[in-house]
Amino acid sequence: MASLIVAGGGIAGLAAAIGAARAGHEVLVLEQAPAFSELGAGIQIGPNGRRALEELGAWEWLRHHVFFPRAIRIRRARSGGELGRVPLGEAFRRRFRGTYQVVHRADLLAALLAVAENEPAITLKTASRVVAWQRRADTMSVLMEDGRQATARGLIGADGIHSRVRAQLLGERRPRFSGHVLYRALVPMEDVPELVDTRNVNLWLNPYGHVVHYPVKGGAAFNIVAAVNERWNAGDTWGEPTQAQAVHRIFARACEELLAVLSTPEKWMRWGGADRQPVTTWGEGALTLIGDAAHPTLPYLASGAVMALEDAVVLMRHLAQEKDLPAAFRAYERERQPRTARIVNSSWRLSRVYHASGLMAAGRDAFIRFTSGAASFDRMAWLYDWRP
Ligand SMILES: Cc1cc2nc3c(=O)[nH]c(=O)nc-3n(C[C@H](O)[C@H](O)[C@H](O)COP(=O)(O)OP(=O)(O)OC[C@H]3O[C@@H](n4cnc5c(N)ncnc54)[C@H](O)[C@@H]3O)c2cc1C
After folding, report:
1. Residue among 14, 37, 43, 268 whose CB has most ligand 1 atoms within 8 A, to mutate
2. Average pLDDT for residues 355-383, to the nearest whole number?
3. Ligand 1 atom having least distance to the Cα of 305
4. Residues enclosing ligand 1, CB less than 6 A?
5. pLDDT digits 0-9 by tens, 301-359
């Protein structure tokens, strides 16, 4: 019998399995999909995320697949003018003792999978959808969709924003829709028109919408995310490939460079941007949650996956120090809840600020100008200074 079951084999589930195995546990990972795979898209990883990856032993593999942007440029969608920038070069690296990198999600998952597959204490099972769990005296059992069962001393729910494990613990609730629909696309770098800045993370602000783009796959592909105020009633997962009429409408008067970015992809994937309000119960007994199952967030602080990596490192520490599983899980939850709640709440607030118009936009722009360059480092310290 494994000592821990992890329900879900995404970024959080694999990171949790690695952390738990390194703390001395035998781990069984149950992933619903037929293979460990990720939708094509980008992830920004701050120095805190890199530190977590180093702790989990996944950085060595991943570092060959990242791109190091020179800066985050904040720009006006209509004029193309720069409102501010966060330099990510030497000064940033010195201040945060680490690098800022962008990466394809599939590469991040592959890095974690490579470590997990090399870890004899981890068993990985695909096509294993967990539908329910049961707590007995000293064990936790899970029931899978096809009727199979598995039992261990503890259970970690890493099954994402629509977590079954969480729904059984806290009750079924729909995620909180932000009012923003997100479109994302990935294109080969050679398809990107020359006038587009492909060396930096670019954040374009416009009333009712914003766009973020940056290179991934070491610079071989280009990741674009556009968020616009739009109604959403198509469920909460990434839909079928689609056109992006709402994006083209809201950015119709954008500058030439941004129009070139938005006209590059032929198809986009669409998602109703949603999170959940932070809660203070992530578990009971030998059950806990991790990653989006615990604290799904809007992507505006680029921290959802990074929080999952941090979670795994903190969980690893508590599991190594405390042999009693419920005690280790509660200690992990107490340590992680304030930080993750702050990130979720800050991302929600940013969603209001990014799409502002009129006076609110003018105030925002003045603030960005005032706190640009190295002056922005202090504002980010709470996020990037995290250390295991
Ligand atoms: C547009 C966008 C941009 C983003 N950008 C960034 C960024 O720049 N930086 C960053 O850090 N984060 C970013 N994120 C957030 C990040 O993608 C998520 O926070 C992260 O992927 C969460 O990982 P997870 O493993 O917790 O959940 P998921 O990725 O949802 O993985 C859950 C896994 O569990 C499996 N599963 C689900 N249900 C079951 C079940 N019942 N039984 C078994 N298996 C199950 C799923 O198949 C999946 O493999 C972004 C998100 C979006 C939408």
Report:
1. 43
2. 91
3. 11
4. 7-13, 30-33, 43-44, 129-130, 158-160, 164, 182, 184, 225, 271, 291-293, 299, 302-306, 308
5. 999 999 999 999 999 999 999 999 999 999 999 999 999 999 999 999 999 999 999 99
pTM: 0.97
Contact at 8 Å (CB) between 314 and 336?
yes
- What is the spatial distance between Cα 77 and Cα 273, in angstroms, rounded to a whole number? 21
State both tokens at 51: 């530190």
Q: φ and ψ at 29, to 5 degrees?
A: -100, 125
Q: How many Å apart are CA 235 and CA 162, to the nearest integer?
A: 11
Ligand 1 atom nearest 182 alpha carbon? 1
Q: Each residue of 75-109: pLDDT tens digit?
A: 999 999 999 999 999 999 999 999 999 999 999 99
**Does the annotation mark 384 as catalytic?**
no
- Taking residues 271-278, what's their average pLDDT? 94
Q: Which of 292, 300, 311 to mutate to test the pocket of ligand 1 (most atoms within 8 A of CB)?
A: 292
Percent of the chain that is helix, strand, coil (3-state, to 5): 40, 25, 35
In whole angstroms, give the CA distance from residue 108 to residue 312: 15
Share of the chain above pLDDT 90, in %: 89
Provide the pLDDT confidence category of residue 2 given band limits of 50, 70 and 90: confident
- Amino acid letter at 247? V
Identify the bridge partners of residue 274 per DSSP, sorted by sequence position. 177
Cα(368) to centroid(ligand 1), Å? 30
**In this structure, which amino acid lies at residue 25?**
H
Integer Cα distance of 117 and 184 in angstroms: 30
Residue from 42, 63, 44, 51 nearest 114 by CA: 63
Looking from the CA of residue 165, the nearest atom of ligand 1 is: 41
Give the ligand 1 atom nearest the CA of 306. 11
Q: Collect all residues with Cβ–Cβ distance below 8 Å to 385 and sequence separation of at least 6.
A: 48, 96
Task: Name the active-site residue from 100, 183, 208, 214.
Answer: 214
**Whole-Å CA distances, 140 to 9, 264, 295, 314, 327:** 18, 49, 22, 22, 15
Residue 60 structure tokens: 């060595």
| Better-scored residue on pLDDT, 238 or 171 | 171
| Domain 4-174+276-384: assigned CATH number | 3.50.50.60
